[in-house]
Specification:
single chain; 237 residues; mainly alpha; Rhomboid-like fold; two-stranded antiparallel sheet; Peptidase_S54_rhomboid_dom; Rhomboid family protein; serine-type endopeptidase activity; Rhom-like_SP_proteobac; transmembrane
Length: 237
């Protein structure tokens, strides 16, 4: 499972880990003042932090489903697109909500993935001449846009109890923009810098997949070394 969906499992695991204690959450969350002052990881890690259990379950559940699909269909490009979207969505929140001190949640990324898959499905089905599935995908994207409009007008987030935090529809809008950009990009004419970046991400992903096996080998070697050291005195006698 980890070898097939390492990115999905890693993000969900980080989300659960960040919720293990308030101290970890505080260190991971997107605190805008600290991020601007040099704590650069917050532009990325803020998305894996959450305010409560309901927030965590909804965000991670939606992310797991959408991420598995994206990681299966766009295995080559998915790590690069996801990594680029994290700080872009964070920057969108900073620009549109300068009064906000901190941000937590995967909902912006969830919206990005949904938009990417939806628009890509419309394009692919129209290219194949399948208007029924293209229409179904268009309805899904329209429902997502309707959700954004409702949240923008009412200030309430659908599906998540937001009593413990202030919902930010701006994060969802930024995610939708990133997803639309990913879906509309012409992957057949990829610029060289993006190709190099994607290749680097692919290499990192392959190394991440091999990490559990390497840890097992190191553990086995360590155990063998301990056994040989323990038997040395007996042989000497």
């Amino acid at each position: 499972m980890f070898r097939r969906y390492p990115i999905t499992i890693l993000i969900v695991a980080l989300s659960v880990f960040s919720a293990a204690s308030p101290a970890i959450t505080e260190w991971f969350q997107l605190d805008f003042s600290k991020a601007v002052e040099g704590e650069w990881w917050r532009w990325f890690s803020g998305h894996v932090t959450h305010f409560d259990l309901s927030h965590l379950i909804w965000d991670c559940g939606m992310f797991a489903v959408l991420s598995v699909i994206c990681e299966s269909r766009y295995r080559k490009w998915y790590p690069a697109i996801l990594l680029a979207s994290l700080p872009l969505i964070s920057a969108g929140i900073v620009i549109s909500c300068p009064e906000i001190a901190s941000y937590r949640g995967l909902s912006g990324i969830d919206t990005m993935l949904f938009t990417w898959l939806g628009i890509a499905a419309i394009k692919n089905n129209l290219r194949r001449g399948d208007r029924i599935f293209a229409t179904a995908a268009a309805v899904g994207v329209a429902c997502m846009l309707g959700k954004l409009a409702y949240e923008g007008i009412t200030g309430e987030i659908l599906f998540v109890n937001s009593d413990s935090f202030q919902p930010l529809v701006e994060a969802h809008i930024a995610g939708a923009i990133c997803g639309a950009a990913a879906a509309c990009f012409d992957w057949q004419k990829t610029p060289k810098p993006l190709l190099i970046f994607s290749k680097a991400m692919q290499i990192s992903r392959e190394r991440l997949c091999r990490l559990p096996g390497r840890l097992t080998d190191v553990s086995a070697r360590h155990g063998n070394n301990q056994g040989s050291h323990a038997s040395a005195p007996a042989d000497a006698e």
